[in-house]
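Side project, low priority. Logging it here so it doesn't get lost.
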Amino acid sequence: GAPSSFGRPAPPPQTGWERLCELWQRDELQRYPEETVNLFKSAFTAGVVGWLYGGLPAFVSARKAFIERSHGELFQNRADAVQSAHRAGLRSFIRYGWRWSWRVTAFTTIFNMVSIGLSVYRDKTTVSNFAAAGAFTGALFRMHLGLQGLAGGIVFGAVFGIPAGGLLMALHGLAGETFQEKRNRERRELYERKLAEWQSRLSVTEVLGQKEDNTQEGPKMERAREL
């Protein structure tokens, strides 16, 4: 009885909580699920886009303002003046780029975490998941402005989440299957493969056990005949 249950592979997660926990668990190859990897990738991309969005206009504006203010200043040469203008623009690029970068990264990360969490927990991808994620994220970012800001954040987030979710679902439709469908298929195939391997090892173990029993019974029968 013990060998029949020892080492049996665990079935795929059945509840929403089990599926959520699986998002932060590595597989046998020490890889995170695709949803989690995409979450990290989107956070990094959002940070870069936010930095460029806030930093580049600030760089141009600061450089232009420095040139306008420095008409009466004396520089050693033209190169010194150009470098000073670039340094002024670079300071603004770093300052305002960082401000936009962390905000866009935080908004994108929270939005994706909530939408992915809802999709994984419910085991289906719908526009309502993205609308709820947008409303939650918008409310979180505007709640410091009071009830009016909270309501505005919810409306803005929901309005943002619906087209964003529709676009992502359309892209998944072009791929032929959603993340949930792909993940469920991979879970099922992995479980079936592990189960087949386990059954194969179990049958080999039973055959070896029978051979060992037959080997032990032979000497016993010979001693019984001698007696």
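Brief comment: Helices lie at 2-5, 16-22, 34-69, 78-122, 127-142, 146-175, 179-226.
Revisit when time allows.
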